[in-house]
Design brief:
The complex is a heterodimer of chains A (about 110) and B (about 400).
Chain A (H helix, E strand, L loop, with lengths): L1 E6 L5 E6 L5 H7 L19 E4 L12 H8 L8 E3 L12 E4 L6
Parallel strand pairs in A: 1-5
Antiparallel strand pairs in A: 1-2, 3-4, 3-5
Chain B lengths: L8 E5 L3 H12 L5 E5 L31 H6 L2 E4 L4 E5 L4 E4 L4 E3 L2 E4 L3 E3 L12 E3 L3 H9 L6 E5 L3 H12 L3 E6 L11 H14 L2 E4 L3 E6 L3 E6 L4 E3 L2 E4 L3 E3 L2 H5 L8 E2 L11 E3 L4 E5 L4 E3 L4 H15 L11 E6 L2 E7 L6 E5 L7 E7 L2 E8 L2 H12 L6 H5 L5 H6 L1
Parallel strand pairs in B: 1-2, 1-7, 2-3, 7-19, 9-16, 10-11, 10-16, 11-12, 18-20
Antiparallel strand pairs in B: 4-5, 5-6, 8-17, 13-14, 14-15, 20-21, 22-23, 23-26, 24-25, 25-26
Helix pairs in contact in B: 1-7
Classes of the chains: A alpha+beta (about 110), B alpha/beta (about 400).
Chain lengths: ~110, ~400
């Protein structure tokens, strides 16, 4: 179980609780967090679950696969802390994770 | 209600991806009235794409296939009625009628009735061991038969057939695919890409027979063999039929709502009845990028039309104008497709198919209209963007892998 905070591009914060093993995208979708559409349901096929991971957490969100890397590379407004939230798996280690959703997904 | 007041009750008929998104979008749009969501299956809205992929392979549990968890519907106060089939829309009374005669009143009605499998009509087609793949129950049934060593006959080399073939091989089944057309994925892609998927599947061990239909299924109490159109027979312990889907438009049609190749809607997902909207596989709708009316069998379309329909039911205009896109996972391949290639006059390959990483771009009068990308995310992402812009792209630049896709996009 981990608490995750989603911040809108305009600063609105939403805290959700999610089970280990789910993805951060699923935590968002299950809790109606706006800005994460996840059209493909987590197949790393659409880049509509793009988030910016709070700097303090970047080291804990796991490796970026080649596929995710290329999808991100072509997502709008990619930054150094960009991730596809469907590829971040929730664990106790991520309790307290903070991510921001990009303006382009709103 | 009057024209400028908000509806009090919105009824959604159908419980697929589009229905789940409609319910979510109605609340996100601020609708505070009653939402009734009626589905004939026993399940909350769920995602169909994983059914032929990770749900069949056992990598995803049912909980993770649901579109939203059960408590979402409680929190959002959606009155979900499962195992309930709507048999009639009484437009005069503004009520839907369910199988048991219950009448449910609506101010606005959203039809997300989706599609159903096209059935194969042949003697013996109801034998045990013959499966379709559209619902969770279909997959649960298929799984009970899905054991190593069995010989599986797949009728139809579309996405479903090929995705199941890949999973079946991995599970140790022997697989023969029968296709009437001379190539796989004939309806959706070019001969070049069909050839690639033919090679991938045959190298993996799938036996593909072209130009064949099944004329009869034979067996005692369950399937044993399939008889082909040339008279030959094939051992078949199980069969999967994947020969396409049909839009569920009969409910609307019977109510006198305009239907043709789907429920007719405009760019705001409005039907010919101002109080009835429709979204997803069941609609035929205008696509401004292609300048024609189309019907799509895709999750993306269901989600986007659902957002448009939910807004329209609340009197807001969010015109639907999307580049269609699709994906398929087979073996280690991720196929991502954007646009519709019908009517292309030139296909440009970028990359070498034997490397299992390439893209096929489709041009019409020099304008990019579609892309099929295999393990090639940049080509897909940039291609999708250029298609939406109706961009003219020089074939030589598309073909040249030394010009990266960002440079291609820059023109």
């Amino acid at each position: 179980m981990a608490k995750i905070t989603f911040i809108d591009h305009d600063g609105t914060k939403r805290d959700v609780e999610a089970d280990n093993g789910l993805s951060v995208m699923e935590a968002a979708v299950n809790n109606m967090v706006p800005g994460i559409d996840a059209d493909c349901g987590g197949a790393c096929a659409c880049a509509t679950c793009h988030v910016y991971v709070d700097d303090a957490w970047m080291g804990k969100t796991g490796e970026i696969s080649d596929m995710e890397e290329t999808m991100l590379d072509f997502a709008e407004d990619r930054r150094e802390n960009s991730r596809l939230s469907c590829q971040i798996k929730i664990s106790d280690e991520l309790d307290g994770l903070v991510v921001t959703t990009p303006e382009s997904q709103h | 209600m009057t024209a400028d007041t908000q509806p009090e009750v919105i009824v959604i008929v159908g419980a697929g991806h589009g229905a789940g998104q409609c319910a979510a979008s109605l609340r996100q749009e601020g609708f505070e009235g009653k939402i009734v969501l009626i589905g004939e299956e026993p399940y909350l809205p769920y995602q169909r794409p994983p059914l032929s992929k990770k749900f069949l392979s056992g990598e995803l549990t049912i909980e993770r296939v649901y579109f939203k968890p059960a408590d979402f519907y409680e929190t959002a106060e959606v009155d979900v009625r499962l195992n309930t089939r709507v048999t009639e829309i009484d437009r005069g009374a503004k009520e839907v009628v369910t199988e048991d005669g219950t009448r449910i009143a609506y101010d606005k009605l959203i039809l997300t009735t989706g599609s159903r499998v096209r059935e194969l009509r042949a003697p013996g087609a109801d034998l045990k061991g013959i499966h379709y793949l559209r619902t969770i129950d279909d997959v649960e049934g298929l799984k009970t038969d899905f054991t190593a060593g069995k010989h599986m006959v797949i009728v139809g080399a579309g996405y479903v057939g090929l995705e199941v073939a890949a999973v079946a091989l991995k599970h140790g089944l022997e697989v023969t695919v029968l296709e009437m057309e001379p190539r796989v994925l004939a309806r959706v892609t070019s001969p070049e890409v069909s050839q690639f998927f033919h090679d991938v599947h045959t190298e993996a061990g799938v036996n593909i027979l072209y130009g064949h239909a099944v004329t009869e299924f034979k067996g005692e109490d369950r399937l044993q063999e399939a008889v082909l159109s040339n008279g030959s027979t094939l051992r078949a312990d199980i069969a999967l039929i994947g020969i396409g889907i049909l839009p569920n438009m009969e409910l609307a049609e019977a109510a006198g709502i305009a239907c043709h190749n789907g429920i007719q809607v405009d760019e705001l997902c409005r039907t010919s009845d101002p109080d009835v909207f429709a979204a997803g596989d069941c609609t035929e709708h205008p696509n401004p990028i292609y300048g024609r009316r189309i019907r799509l069998e895709s999750v993306h379309n269901a989600l986007e039309q659902a957002k448009t329909a939910a807004a329209a039911a609340l009197g807001k205009e969010k015109p639907y104008a999307q580049v269609p896109w699709f994906w398929s996972d087979q073996y280690d391949l991720k196929l991502q497709m954007a646009g519709l290639n019908q009517g292309y006059d030139e296909v440009v390959l970028r990359g070498d198919p034997t490397s299992r990483k390439f893209a096929a771009f489709y041009l019409k009068d020099g304008v990019l209209i579609a892309v099929d990308a295999i393990n090639a995310a940049p080509e897909y992402m940039i291609g999708r963007k250029l298609i939406g812009e109706k961009a003219k792209v020089a074939p030589a630049r598309l073909r040249d892998i030394n010009v990266n896709m960002k440079e291609v996009a820059a023109g």
